[in-house]
Structures are given as C-alpha cells and as structure tokens.
Design goal:
heterodimer, A: 425 residues, alpha+beta, PmbA/TldD fold, ten-stranded mixed β-sheet, seven-stranded antiparallel β-sheet, 9 helices, 23 strands, 21% helix, B: 490 residues, 2 domains, eight-stranded mixed β-sheet, 10 helices, 26 strands, 36% strand, disordered N terminus
Chain lengths: 425, 490
Amino acid sequence: MLETLKKTLASLGADGWELTENKTSRWEFYFIRHSLDQNRAAETVNYSVKVYKKLEGGLLGSASCEINPTDTAAEVEKKLSDLLERASLVKNPEYSLVSEKITLPDKTERVDVQKIARDFIEAVASVPETESEDINSYEIFVSEITRHTLNSNGVEYTAVYPASMLEIVVNARREGHEIELYRQFNSGSCDKEKVRADVLAAMRTGRDRLSAEPTPRVENIDVVLSTEDAVSVFEYFTMNANVQAKYRRISPFEKGRPVCDWQGGDRISVRAVRELDNSSRNFPVDAEGSVIEERDIIKDGVLCDFWGQRQFSQYLGIEKNSVISNFVFEGGSALSEELRSGDYIELVEFSDFQVDSMGGDVAGEIRLGYLHKDGETKIITGGSVSGSMLEAAPTMKYSRETAQYDNIVIPAVVRLGNLRITGVK
Amino acid sequence: MLYCIKMAIYGVINLKAKFSQYLASIAPELKRLVAILGESYDYVSVLSTDSKGISLTISQRAKNVTTQNITTERGSVVRVYKNGLYSEYAFNCFDSAEKLAERAKAALDSQLALLKLTGSKVYDTAKLDDSPMELFVEKDAEILPEECDAGEFINLFTELSDEGMKTIPGALDVMVRASGTHINKMFLTANRDLRQSYSYVEGSAASYAPGKDGDMKFTHVGVSGCGGMELLYGLREKIKTLPGVMADLVASEKIVPGEYEIITDPTVTGLIAHEAFGHGVEMDMFVKNRALGKDYIDKRVGSDKVTMHEGARCDESVTAFAFDDEGTLAGDVIEIDRGILRTGICDALSALRLGVAPTGNGKRQSYDHKVYTRMTNTVFDSGDDKLEDMIKSIDHGYLLRGMQSGMEDPKHWGIQCIIERGYEIKNGALTGVCVSPVVMTGYVPDLLGGVSMATGDRVVEGNGACGKGYKEWVKVADGGPYLKTKARLG
C-alpha cells in the first residue's frame, strides 16, 4: 500500500504530502472479579495522508484523509485526486514541511505483547484482598504500535513502541455499605510492583471513604492535591505553552515573560524530553517528521518558548519545533510533609477534577478528602472545589519529591490557595 | 422472524443513504468465514463497517478539512463463543475466509494459552440467540457527508465566522466546525443478515473572549441530527444568539456557593438525564454490581414529574440506528415512569447474564473496540408548565443554561455537572445578573425528587461524545424540557 500511495501522490502532482502508517497489534482481557469476561485481539493497519497545494497569494492548501488497506489502486487514486481538489479550497498562510533528514536510527525493537499482558494479569492477581476490600473488575489493554512516518521531502522514520492501559475498579465495604474506586493507569509496559502498589493505595482510599463525613462549610483554606488529579493543574501550563493555543489567541503566555504573576509561590520549570521510562508515548519523532528535541519549555516561571505543530510554530516565527509527548516538571522548594502543615484540605478523590486550560477554571466534585483544621483531621466527602488557576497559580507551592503519571512527571504534592470549597452541611 | 424495514424520516425528501457497495461485496466471503469458524465454535457473528465522512473546521486563524472523524472506519470484528466464553478478533485487512479464520483462531488460541498459564477462570455465559432475522435499512439524507461540496460548506462557515467576529463582543475568534458520517454496518451470523445505512451530522459555532477578570470566556451553539449535511444550514439561525450570551459571560460574576432552586434549560436537563440515570442504569454495571440502580427497580427515584425514555428509536438524532453493534434491534424503553425506576438498558451479553431481554444498547467505539452497554437517546418527558411560571415561583435561584461537561457516579448516585452560565432569579424575576461557570453537584434522588415543574416543549441534542469512564467514545444524544428542582451550586 505504501508504494501505491507514494506513486499515486507523485503522479497527481501534489506540492507536498505527509503520510503515516500505523500498525497495531493489541491484546485485551476483561475480568469480572477474577473471572474472564471476554478476551479480544485486534490486528489493524491505518494510513493517514495529508496533501498540500501551493495557492496564489502566498497561501497553502491542505486536506487529509484515511486510506483503508482494502482500498484498490483505483480507489486510492480517486481519493487522493479528490483530496487535492479539496486542498485547493482550504486556504491557510504558507508554511513548510519538515525537510531535515532524520539521523536517529529507527526504533525497531519488538514489543512482547504476550509477556506484558501476563505481567498485568499476575500483578493484579497478586494484590491481597480482604473481606472488606477487593477487586470488582479490571480491563487490560496491551498494544504494539508501529508508526511509520514519511513526507514528500524524503523524511522517513519508523518507531515501534508499547502502549498499555489497566482500568481497575476496587470496592471497600463496611456494615452493609459498599463504595467503589475507579482507576485508569496508562503506561508503556507493565511495572508489576507499581501496579500492585497503586491498587493497594486505591483500596486504602476506599477504606477511608467509608469513614467520611459530609464536607462542612470551610472558607479561605488551602487545597492540597497529591494524586493523578494534580496532572491537570500542571497541564494548564503545558497547554498554554502550545503554539496552537498561542496562535488562536487562547493562551496569555508570552515568550521570555513570566507565565503568571508569581506571588510567593514556587516558579514552574518544565522540560520537554524525548522519552520517559515506561511512558506510553515513547516515539522520538513526531507525526510530522520532526525529531523531538529535549529542551526547557518554562524555566523558573518564565516561558522559554512555545512547543507544538509545525504550521502554527511557523506562523509564530518559530522555524524548528516539534509536538512533545513527554514532559518533566521540576520539584519545588519544600518537602511533602512541609506542605502538609497548618490548616489545609487534601483532596484525593473526585468525580472528575477539571482544569480548563482555556480559561483556567477549576472544578471538581469531592469524593474523598482530609480536612486538617485547628489541629484536627476529618475525613470528608461531598461538595465541590472551584476557582481559577489565574488566582490559584501565583501562590502555588509544590514538593521537592516528584511522581510520574504515564508521560508526565510532576511534583508529588501541590498546595494551592484561592480556591473555593462548597460544603454540604 | 423476518424483518424488512424501509425508513423515511422526512416526508418531502426522498433521497436514501445508499448501503455500502464494499460491504455488499464482502458479504459472501464473510458468510463463508462465519461457516468455517462455526466448525470450531458454538456461535459466530461478524460486524463489518464502512463509514465514510468529513470534518471541517473554519476559523479566522486556521482552516482544516479531513475525511476522518470519530465515527469514520472500515473493518470487521468476529465474535466467537465456546465453553461459556466469548472472544473477539478485529481486523481491517481483508483476505479469503480460510485465511481470516486461520488468523482469528491463531490470535485467540494464543490468548487462551496465556490464560491457561495464568490460571484464569472463565465467567460462564450462555449462548446468544441466533434465530433467523433479516433487515435492510436505508434512511433518508439529502447531502451525504462523503459526497458534499466541501467548498460550499467552507464558504458558509467562513461567512458565519466573519459575521460572528462583527457581532460577538470582544470575540478573539469564531470557530465553526462540523462533522458528518454516512454510517454503514452489516451484522452476519449463520442465520442473520442485518444491514443499515444512515447519515448523521453535527455542527457548532464557538467563540471565546476575555472576561472582566482576565480569564477567558467560551460559548457555543450547535445543531445535530440524523440526516445529511443540509442540517448544518441551521447554524445560520443558532449563531445569532452568541453575541448576547457572550456579553452576559464577559460581565458575569462568581456564584456564591450554596443550595438553590434552579431551572435547567434543555441542554442542562439532557446532561442530568445522561449522568443521573443514563450511566446509572447501564446494565453491564449491574452484572459487576457497580450500580445502585440494580437495587432500586420499581422503587421511587424521582418525583411524579420525572419520566425518562432511552433508546435509538426515541429520536431521529445522531444515534438513531436501526440495530446495535450486536445485531439487536433498536429500542425505546421507559427507564423512569413518573418517578419510579422501571428498568435499565442492556447489551446482549449482559442481558444473558442477568436473564433479561437486550434493549438495543450494545455499542462499540469502533469495530476494533469491545461492546459495552451504552446510551443512545436519553430524554426526559415534557410536562405542562410554562417557563415564565417557573421563574415566578422562585424566591432566590438560578436559570442554568449551556452544558459543558458532566460525570456520573452510578455506585453512589453522586452527580457533577459543569454548566456554562446561570441567570439569577430573585422574587420571581430574572435580575439580569449572570454567573459563570457553575458547578452543580448533588445526590441524584434528591435532584430528581425535587423536580416540581416541567415545560411542555422538549429539545434533544447530540453534539460531542460520551465516554465510559475515561475511554470508549460513542455518539449519544440527550435532552428534555426545562425542569425546576433544587441543587447545590458552586
């Protein structure tokens, strides 16, 4: 199919093209308690093609489509010919495709899907369950992905990488009352010890939730986050450092300027990295054929430069850029226990914790938290947290210790001021 | 049983979404595949898809056109059953029936070998019914997504974006986007041959502008439905509301947290329907004992004013299919009847496990994803109240408009809805004060138990997608009338 596509694109006279071939081999196992509900295997190939056409007035037309592996040569020609016609209608300011030859060796080490799947099954089976805490159900997804990227400038790269996901639900119960906790862990392959520790931590959370009382009305109290929910707090910064957000005038960030009006908080530093241990997004070349360079995105609270797609980068005057897959935030000034001092509310479980990167709005219904006030600790549930990153970020403090969640490393504990808690009593 | 249905949605328009020639061409070989695998397994089905579409995004800053969107796909999935276990093999490289059977068996046998090594037990399930059935459905659509004149819609959207920039106060951009898919699906077993072809489209116009506190305000309007790209012309009228809404948002204040009397507009009503007793009665969750609804069948969960329907037949929306992804015919169930929870919705395997009939709610994100019990149209019935009477009846509360997102909690019946804006009501009248955003939280039976009024109109919308947990994205629609109830806002 690749040869057919290349030959057809050349014969149709496209001014440029980008092509991605994605081969996926995936194994899936679904368990109810520890009994197999269903097993699934998928073997698929997908081709994405984007064509470019130079237009009058310094404009560039483009349009993209998917080619099916079952398309005949005639169908491919018809699709690409139609695509070129459509491209002439989609007029954007001109930009160039990647032309730097890739000197990195292809990443060709095969992924042992069977072994990774076995590790997940064994890791979950090894979690000790009790009469009061156990596993309700879990789903295992393990993929070997082969991504082959090519363009009309002769750029070509192949990366084979693993991508896995464990979705697990645990129950905790006491005196006829049962609650559940949902977790979704994404990773490259299976870190058995981490899976076990994460599931046990969820069970501990479940135990505490059974003892929770309704969240009281509290005012002017700092919020501490110490779970994966904190990722969205830090993604507020990476999303606003994206070229598309800037070009679309959504991001208030400016190159060389502080990313917020720091008022005594720790100043953010985040670095783009090509690969992270056990990330599910370890491909050293992005989908446009740009090699992912390791570099600072934000340093000591100041934006070094935007990251992202080539089109929007060039519109902003950034000639060389790439779509970053893995980020590492630096730890802060204090130890975790220092952040957990005085009056504060530590929120560890939400229905859905959201930080809107566009406006900075923060919202989440509280399922479990620990209210530390006047020297006492109460386990609380219900109510919500809300506010804005514009007010919370300047005073934010975070821990020296860090934690990894799939493709991002963030401080393990973050303390935020200026958020509102809506209690239920 | 033999079904043969031809559906016509619009009396005037009589253009059919023609069934995929590709699927028709591979049907004989797939039937051979079913027969070959039938020698090794006790039940075999194949679902094949060939869904073509388009997606267009036009703004002042950038334009994009692609034939890919979340429902475009071409591929097949084989489901087999033996010794109480269902297994599936998904593929999109077609081959002879013999080679496909060999590939499927090899992949699934290796998985069973691994499961033997790990000592995994099987959740024993009965065999699916395979009594004879035939169905051929081609629904109406004037302009199919894959055949549309992209230039015409680029021009329309450019015109709407330009108009929005002139009329929406402070707008930094106006993005008009649409996607549509001509869905083609074929479900085959030894005794069944079901084929359907229909088109759906969704479109939206969105704008953002700086708020008075340095934040960014975002609002949007949308159109959606079962049909062709012609539905997108509805955006011309809808976009006219954006200037007023944006002016309200830019001037909006933060809400003082507390419990209030509220009125929900149809989009917020739909969000409540979806999150409260949509996810909460997906019966694959009953199998896992993950939903409190299981213990509340025939018990009160809302006021007398609450009646709720679910099913692909409830509305000609983005999810108005004729059969689901397991070959069950589309349904229309009354989940809540005047406050009493009557039933849930169910995929075919969960139905076997629970000893009930499937309701036509077995849906996949795509051919290479598993079936789960999923929503289709989830809709509150209308009442007979008037909106102005609802407002007059409130001492201090809010009229909530514009859904943003929600999250369910079927096990504990907590609900979280993030709503674009609220309009203050004091002493029976709107004060002109707008608050945004609004986080509505509460306990579902309290929220539905508090429903005291419902208007006579009803709107169903299907923009966006719904996930199960944080994955498995499918098209759904929801809605209802304006409802009056009480909730915690923050």
